Amino acid sequence: MTDERKVSTATNPDIDAAGFTPDAPVTSVRQAAPGLPEGKREGFSVVGKALPKPDAFAKVTGTANFADDIVLPRMLFGKLLRSRHAHALVKSVDCSRALKMPGVVAVMTGADLPVKYGILPSSPDEDVLAIDKVRYVGDPVAAVVADDELTAEEALELIDVEYEALPPVMNIETALRDDLPKLHENPRRTNNVHKEVHLEFGDMDAGFAAADRIFDDEFFFEGNTHAPMEQHSVVADFGPDKKLTIWASTQTPHYLHRIASQVLQMPASHVRVIAPPVGGGFGGKTEPFAHELVAAYLARKTGRPVKITLTREEVFFAHRGRHPVKMKLRTGVKSDGSITACHLQTWLDGGAYGSYGVATTYYTGALTTVTYKIPAYKFDGVRVFTNKPPCGPKRGHGTTQPRFAFECHLDKIADALGFDAADYRKKIAVDPNSTTVNGLRVTSCGLRECLDAASTRTGYSAKRGKMARGKGIGIAASSYLCGAGLAIYWNPMPHSGAIVKVDRGGGVTVFCGSSECGQGSESMLAAIVAETLGVDIMDVRVCAGDTDLTPVDLGSYSSRVTFMAGNAAREAAGRVRKQLTEVASEHLGVPETRIGFARRRIFDVENRATEMTFLEAAQMAEARFGTLAAPGSYTPPSLAGDFKGSGVGPSPAYSYSVCVAEVDVDLDTGEVKIEKITLAHDVGRAINPDSVEGQIEGGVYMGIGEAVMEESAFRGIEHKIPNLLDYKTLTILDMPPVESIIIETDDREGPFGAKEAGQGPLNPVIPAIANAVADAIKARVYSTPITADKVLRALDASSGGVLRLRKAPARA
Amino acid sequence: MSIAPAKILARLHINGADVECAFNPNKTLLEVLREDVNLTGTKHGCEMGHCGACTVIVDGDAVLSCLALAVETIGHDVRTVEGLAEGGELHPVQRAFAATGGAQCGYCTPGFIMSAVALLERNPRASRAETMQALSGNLCRCTGYTKIIEAVESAAADMQSGA
Question: Most buried residue, A315, A494, A744, B49, by CB count within 10 Å?
Fold first, then answer.
């Protein structure tokens, strides 16, 4: 496949001329990939071009309607009463005083809708509103709808709930104990373990026996949260036709559709879910939430539209964020550095409910093998329930934590064996078109090219270990899915569908169930359809995320949309193109094989003067074939193995990323300043290089936050910092310069060769920073976030060696 | 029926026009804009002054509309993101945000644009440091800010050259 690979690692001579210096507070250096052969590159008129996103115009003028912007006549406003107990039996809930309050229209308790649900069919453990038990501070217990929000909020004070407090279970160690109450009844267990996974591939004994050195390490990754700028919001309307419509800020309208229909016990054909533009998700809006089901129920009950918008504090309670994970690694290596065996153990603090946690548990082990050759691999994962807001999928879903651990571990191995850490990674990198020991199919793989580009560009090898104390450079690599190989629920149907329609005015509409959450799914769909039909990207209207109007797309999670919805849209547009080709061929008297599409023209590729307009061809085709429209679908190849759990990990393709971080650590205060991040990402092909850069920069930003400041901190049973001031994220002043390097490997199954960019680039950032800090202070911090206090502690201990922080230091 | 204090009738000056509206006097400017004047372009992200999503311009200053009472703005000039485009033409800052990819999910975008417009109207030759300072009260979770800086600097250049 090497000859098919187009790799761009050329540096741009304009970069230095443009005055880029590390002191520049924020800058983006564009090293877009010219990598495709000229001929093929010329062949594209939309793909590969940094065009403005069609949906940007509504967003810059304030006309994009997010869920909370929707106002319907006679609309009511709902509020949820949330538990102040972390763990308690609910003895009674009495809403009668609230119902009497002027302005209150209806109330609701758990008994009104006693149907358990959960995003994964394997763990339906959530009540719409608590029935017998609350499991975290913030667990919803009752709801009120009123004429206005203030009245609804005040009415919550009049709801009387009788609780019987239970001992709270607040961390992994406690959850493993046998003598505490269980959050969820499970006759098979005596403790609060939710899920255990034990997988073994290859010959572990032989692997460790063949090793010259064995390395052991232990790491802890602190939990953190998505904190999308948009607070979750829902509007529900139950019409006189007894049909329910739900507008929700959701990344997964299809899953909300399914579960709303199940919980409300209505035929799915009478439930419509619409996902307006989502104001940021990052995985935090990928499952149904209590407030959505409550709004739907109360809209049905009152016959009036109901809106519920969460407060920022409630967004922290809704959570589904990054799991805190404790990790142990044992790796055997030969003296030449090759890995002979690897054993990874993970313990995930899942919070109060299942959420995606079963998948998360598998994901902490599934992708370890996709970056480096590991001939024998053992994975043990345990997820526990604790009395905290439920954890779920956040950008990098379950792979971010072990990637931090593994890349730090690998740097220690490289150091111990005397290897350059960049060269070492290249030496053991997986090959394109190979299969991992746990059965994952790797196709296109630009890992070595990413390593080359990022290390060369930064002068990594010349700097590492050779700079003044306090200055450090670190490298790390990673890989991510381009869509999960299996849906959340088992079914043999496509993962994504699209319909392309051409009207007789020459306008093109693509209908697709995908949800635009800022990642650029709508502009990606428009670009793919515009490229296929040779029209301008602004000629394409995208109708997305509406379960009545659009074919199913499973949603904006697992970095699947470009690959899956993109392929579906490409197939749909390709079918319309075929009809247009047929009429154009006849009309122009040119064989079909010579018909080309570009610039709203259909022409003879060998003699461009022989042409007709797209509009003429569209009208002729409609006259010939009838309404000009076609569906397209995408189903990933069947890649799962024959063992339990083999459904988590397979993907039609994997993206690869390498990050080099340069840091300056203040040895007196312990403060870590990130000076520059360089990130090379194998995206297969950039449909829109600006969008890919935007995803890289956003991933870098979020990775830096997780590396040095973001954490879900608790004081006793309570979330300590459920607001955007105290939950620290980077402001514009904290953001270092980012150099993005786009590597194109032209994936053979991706749409126009494209892979993902939404999640992958985050993963290597955290370990690259950790490795850079280790280089700077000659000691290592073993837990995230790498805050000043931990750096100082590591420095204090480093006079006599390396201090291991086995967990985050206890907080007051 | 509501427990809120009775509505008052007031004349606000929004986006160059007098707007008569009735609203509860305990409401913030953010709430009145969104709920009583139907200007939903101004967003909320925290309602505590932490995130900048609700930034509007009052008498030339960038103001967090979640921390201002609407009644305080009677007699003052309020501008929101809806008031920037003129005659169907985008304001240079809006144009630049669309062109550079400064808007991803777009939720923080109106706030950033208003902060940037307030800056550039006062200081058309703002340095990068001044630009960053002016935008440091606005949070964005998508972009990593790089394309936002790019957008504001490119808009500043356009405004200088009269483009």
Answer: A744
Domains defined for chain A, CATH in brackets: 40-64+494-634 (3.30.365.10), 67-166+226-318 (3.90.1170.50), 325-486+642-798 (3.30.365.10)
Residue A684, burial from CB neighbour count under 10 angstroms (0-12, 13-18, 19+) = buried
Do B65 and B101 lie in one domain? The reply is no
Looking at the fold, whether B72 and B97 belong to one and the same domain comes out as no
Statement to judge: residues B79 and B127 lie in one domain: no
A66–B81 C-beta distance less than 8 A: no
User: By the CB < 8 Å criterion, does B128 face chain A?
Assistant: yes
CB A549: neighbour CB atoms within 10 A? 14
Enumerate the residues of chain B whose CB falls inside 8 A of the CB of residue A699.
144
pLDDT tens for residues B54-78? 999 999 999 999 999 999 999 999 9
From B133's Cα to the closest Cα of chain A, the distance in A is 7
- The whole domain housing B139 covers 92-161
Q: Which CATH number fits the domain that encloses residue B147?
A: 1.10.150.120
Residue A811's identity, in one-letter code, is R
Q: What is the pLDDT of residue A538?
A: 96
pLDDT, tens only, A459-497: 999 999 999 999 999 999 999 999 999 999 999 999 999
Cβ of B103 and A227 within 8 Å? no
DSSP state of A809: P
Distance CA A417, CA A435 (A): 27
User: Do B79 and B98 have their domain in common?
Assistant: no
Chain segment A18-49, per-residue pLDDT in tens? 333 333 434 444 444 444 443 344 479 999 99
Query: Which whole number is the average pLDDT over A583-601?
Result: 97
The pTM (predicted TM-score) of the whole model is 0.95
Look at chain B and report how many structural domains it folds into. 2
* Structure confidence at residue A798 (pLDDT): 79
Residue B13 backbone phi and psi in degrees, to 5: -110, 105
Prediction ipTM score: 0.98
